[in-house]
């Protein structure tokens, strides 16, 4: 799919507070990123201050064209993104809130081959994605200023459009989010894995052992914090999950002793059928590691360019 990755490429830099009414009844999973929370925190503010073009990671030509032709700057213009679905394959609805120019966004899409259509009475665009083995038609609408609704089918777009018109929370998924202690999470997500397994029988057997999962990430003071809570179908398996995580961490430290300092903030505990995970690390340390990674990427690109 050529266009969907282009529209979602800044996923980790999106946001505004989550609106539970955006999730229709029957949703089996969702994810939301809050750009206001990202920008208001030290690490997020640092990331948002970086130039759009980074020599360590050259911007794809289509992304560059999108930004230049629309004047869109995701550091400034993106407000939120909420993605949700019922668990079936090739099924998702997306709501993007922004402060950019809707007309320029629509014009760019039409230049990329999107055609005008109508979904549930709303003027929309349909974009044929392919040929790359993931053929589908992406449906896009601009139902109100500052909002883009997308669906991987006309039905999915309809779900997004109807969610915008509702003020009533119909989904139980937000209750699964493990956001305790994190007052203003940057990223939240939840999955009803039992519903997903029913909608998609092709899910791996291991995934089907879980009943639900919820998580939240955000900055608290000078720490990046992650919290998650999952529930197993068989309570006896929760201890096995803890042991598996402990085994992975031991292996990581054995391979690289430096990993120990990164993993010292990880705590995994079981309680009945639940497995609760918390992790925290210094925001400054993450920022420093990102800077080092950029240097390594630039050096690697230079070596490849020199044929070494």
Written account of the structure:
It is a single chain. With 308 residues, this protein is α+β, with helices and mostly antiparallel strands. The protein is globular and about 55 Å long. It has 2 domains: 162 residues, no CATH class; 132 residues, no CATH class. Helix 3 runs parallel beside helix 11.
* N to C succession of SSEs: HEHHHHEEHEEEEHEHEEHHEEH
Approximate helicity band: 25-40%
As residue ranges, the low-confidence spans are 1-15
| Number of DSSP helical runs | 11
Strand content: 25-35%
Assembly classification: single chain
SSE layout and pairing:
Elements: H1 4-8, E1 29-34, H2 35-40, H3 42-48, H4 61-70, H5 74-77, E2 78-85, E3 93-98, H6 102-111, E4 115-119, E5 122-129, E6 136-144, E7 147-151, H7 154-165, E8 187-192, H8 193-199, E9 210-220, E10 223-232, H9 237-255, H10 259-263, E11 266-271, E12 274-282, H11 283-305
Antiparallel strand pairs: 1-2, 1-8, 2-3, 3-7, 4-5, 5-6, 6-7, 8-9, 9-10, 10-12, 11-12
Helix pairs in contact: 3-11
List keywords for this structure.
12-stranded antiparallel beta sheet; disordered N terminus; 308 residues; globular; 2 domains; alpha+beta
């Amino acid at each position: 799919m050529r266009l969907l990755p282009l529209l979602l490429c800044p996923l980790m830099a999106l946001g505004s507070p989550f609106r539970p009414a955006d999730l229709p009844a029957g949703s089996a999973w969702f994810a939301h990123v809050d750009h206001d929370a990202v920008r208001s925190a030290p690490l997020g503010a640092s990331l948002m201050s970086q130039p759009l073009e980074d020599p360590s990671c050259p911007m794809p030509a289509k992304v560059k064209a999108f930004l230049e032709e629309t004047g869109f700057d995701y550091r400034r213009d993106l407000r939120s993104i909420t993605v949700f679905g019922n668990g079936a394959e090739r099924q998702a609805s997306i709501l993007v809130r922004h402060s950019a120019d809707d007309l320029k966004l629509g014009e760019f899409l039409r230049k990329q081959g999107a055609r005008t259509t109508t979904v549930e009475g709303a003027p929309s665009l349909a974009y044929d994605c392919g040929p790359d083995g993931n053929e589908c038609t992406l449906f896009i609408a601009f139902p109100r200023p500052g909002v883009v609704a997308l669906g991987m089918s006309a039905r999915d777009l309809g779900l997004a459009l109807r969610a915008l018109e509702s003020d009533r929370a119909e989904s139980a998924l937000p209750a699964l989010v493990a956001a305790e202690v994190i007052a203003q999470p940057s990223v939240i997500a939840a999955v009803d894995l039992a519903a997903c397994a029913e909608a998609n029988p092709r899910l791996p057997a291991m995934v089907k052992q879980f009943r639900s999962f919820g998580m939240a990430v955000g900055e608290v003071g000078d720490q990046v914090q992650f919290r998650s809570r999952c529930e197993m179908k068989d309570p006896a398996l929760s201890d096995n999950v803890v042991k598996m995580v402990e085994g992975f961490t031991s292996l990581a430290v054995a391979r690289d002793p430096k990993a120990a300092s990164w993993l010292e903030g990880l705590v995994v505990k079981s309680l009945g059928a639940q497995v609760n995970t918390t992790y925290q690390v210094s925001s400054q340390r993450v920022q420093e590691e990102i800077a080092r990674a950029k240097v390594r990427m630039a050096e690697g690109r230079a070596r490849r360019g020199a044929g070494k």
